[in-house]
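tokens incoming
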């Protein structure tokens, strides 16, 4: 038995045999052809582009039907690239001038093109290298240079283990219905592979570094996508524990219909607001379906991470409008762009930074790119006339940033009023508490805002000084550290004293292990990825607030993460079974 920690990107626990995929790059041997063979090779190149483009268009259409346009748009880059004449011409030129075989010319060109992305400083752009590899594989397949691993004939369920997977491979794996989840050496939480896995509900752990070296096909694997853990060949008792957990999750899923209409209310009558976290407007429907009563976090930076120039005010307005229409009168918290760190947009020049997570990130970036920021605020303010919209600023670490951001917002609203827009209802403003500085000064921030939302993903990384995306220190990254719990307690207390509503929207909010504690700490609004809502609601409905407060008091007496986790496991098991 061995346990490996990586980055959980899609909730759920699955247990099955491993299937190790060979996804290592295949080198196409250098091959030149006779002069009379050249027309044939050129024809092969043309056909490969046409076939790959048709294939992608089909898959994109199919994916859009199943999972919405935004997710399918991940393949927009592939489609545009394959329909662009320039790369095709350059490859053809290599065939003509150097007499390269079609396969070799494609592979040389694509490798060079991919290297350009891999050498970029932004992890987001580096990830695009994977999309290029995806295209290369397709082209090579169509010229007969690379065999595809056929998965359609799988007879029993498996968990796929690979060095890395391209977005197309994730879609293909999910389509087989036999692949229950996957685990990869490479990858980060913002990669397209991760976003697709989450969107398609495929439990996955990425960034495991060397999982392929430890697993052979046929080994039994547990993939716990919620906690980012993979267990290799669990012993009998562990296997039983994970089987129970997986069965529990399935049970909860099965009772979903029943749960959806029921309130998220404790046994002693306290109602908890459960909201959804989204990246794209199409996910609103999924959240509501799972029982959300609104959206507590709309991460808008993904709009800026698509190919091409950043969306202008009108394009953004249309996106926000569609989210508001989908949410149907419930609240929608729109977070302004959280760019920088590992999320760099493709348009314009991007200055590499030594410590991007401590650099020009998030609200700092917005305040230095006022044209972009103002366009976003204008779009949000205009959209706010259509529903219960609230605006939220990310990564505020000092009061002056909040004041500046509010100043820009007020300016924008005045401009809009001058052009005839009437703001008859207030546009509530909130900040994310994601740094120890913000948590410590929560009272001051609360006095000048309508709400605070605790972003534990960043709060943990900045408090414990652990990079949330670095698999080498993943075991040090935990919401159970007493420092985090005390910070949350302080924010809830200080926010409450200043009449600001306090909610939580980091991953911790959706982890059922912490539900009782969070309620005990006084949180009444939890915002999470759609998939976690039913499980969390189930727990809420099984407990009383009096018990939750007792649990909180006990947890606050602990000195170590281990004690906290062990105790919460026991308490959660009492009401809900194994976790
Ligand atoms: C957080 O930091 O907890 C959060 C919700 O923001 P993001 O995960 O988008 O950084
Ligand atoms: Mg954050």
């Amino acid at each position: 038995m061995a346990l490996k920690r990586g980055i959980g990107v899609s909730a759920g626990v699955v247990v099955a045999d491993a299937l190790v995929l060979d996804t290592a790059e295949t080198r196409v041997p250098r091959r030149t052809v006779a002069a009379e063979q050249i027309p044939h090779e050129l024809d092969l190149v043309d056909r490969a582009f046409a076939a790959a483009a048709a294939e992608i268009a089909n898959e994109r259409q199919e994916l859009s039907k199943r999972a919405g346009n935004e997710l399918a748009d991940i393949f927009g880059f592939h489609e545009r690239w394959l329909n662009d004449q320039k790369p095709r011409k350059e490859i053809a030129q290599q065939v003509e001038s150097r007499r390269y075989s079609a396969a070799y010319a494609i592979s040389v060109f694509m490798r060079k093109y991919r290297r350009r992305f891999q050498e970029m400083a932004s992890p987001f752009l580096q990830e695009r290298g994977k999309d290029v590899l995806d295209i290369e594989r397709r082209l090579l397949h169509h010229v007969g240079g690379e065999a595809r691993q056929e998965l359609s004939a799988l007879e029993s369920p498996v968990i796929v283990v690979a060095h890395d997977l391209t977005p197309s491979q994730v879609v293909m794996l999910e389509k087989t219905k036999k692949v229950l989840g996957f685990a990869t050496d490479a990858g980060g939480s913002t990669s397209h592979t991760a976003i697709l896995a989450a969107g398609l509900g495929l439990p996955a752990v990425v960034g495991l570094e060397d999982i392929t070296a430890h697993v052979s096909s046929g080994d039994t694997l547990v993939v716990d996508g919620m906690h980012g853990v993979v267990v290799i060949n669990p012993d009998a008792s562990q296997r039983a524990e994970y089987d129970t957990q997986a069965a529990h999750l399935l049970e909860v899923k099965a009772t979903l219909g029943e749960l959806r209409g029921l309130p998220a209310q404790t046994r002693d009558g306290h109602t908890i607001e459960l909201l959804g976290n989204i990246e794209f407007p199409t996910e609103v429907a999924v959240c509501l379906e799972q029982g959300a009563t609104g959206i507590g976090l709309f991460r808008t930076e993904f709009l800026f991470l698509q190919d091409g120039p950043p969306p202008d005010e009108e394009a953004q307005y249309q996106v926000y409008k569609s989210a508001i229409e989908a949410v149907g009168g419930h609240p929608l918290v729109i977070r302004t762009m959280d760019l920088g760190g590992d999320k760099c947009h493709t348009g314009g020049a991007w200055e590499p930074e030594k410590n991007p997570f401590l650099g020009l990130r998030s609200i700092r970036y917005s305040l230095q790119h006022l044209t972009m920021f103002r366009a976003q605020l204008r779009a949000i303010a205009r959209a706010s006339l259509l529903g219960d919209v609230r605006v939220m600023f990310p990564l505020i670490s000092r009061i002056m940033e909040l004041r500046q951001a509010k100043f820009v917002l007020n300016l924008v609203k005045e401009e809009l009023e001058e052009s005839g827009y009437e703001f008859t209802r207030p546009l509530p403003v909130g900040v994310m508490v994601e740094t120890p500085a913000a948590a410590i000064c929560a009272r001051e921030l609360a006095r000048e805002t309508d709400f605070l939302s605790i972003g534990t993903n960043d709060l943990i990384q900045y408090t414990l000084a652990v990079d949330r995306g670095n698999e080498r220190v993943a075991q040090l990254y935990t919401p159970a550290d007493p420092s985090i719990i005390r910070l949350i307690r302080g924010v809830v207390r200080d926010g409450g004293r200043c009449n600001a509503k306090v909610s939580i929207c980091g991953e911790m909010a959706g982890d059922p292990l912490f539900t009782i504690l969070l309620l005990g700490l006084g949180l009444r609004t939890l915002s999470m990825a759609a998939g976690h809502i039913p499980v969390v609601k189930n727990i809420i409905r099984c407990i009383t607030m009096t018990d939750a407060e007792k649990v909180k008091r006990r947890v606050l007496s602990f000195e170590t993460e281990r004690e906290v986790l062990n105790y919460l496991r026991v308490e959660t098991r009492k009401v809900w079974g194994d976790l």
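note: The mean pLDDT is 88.
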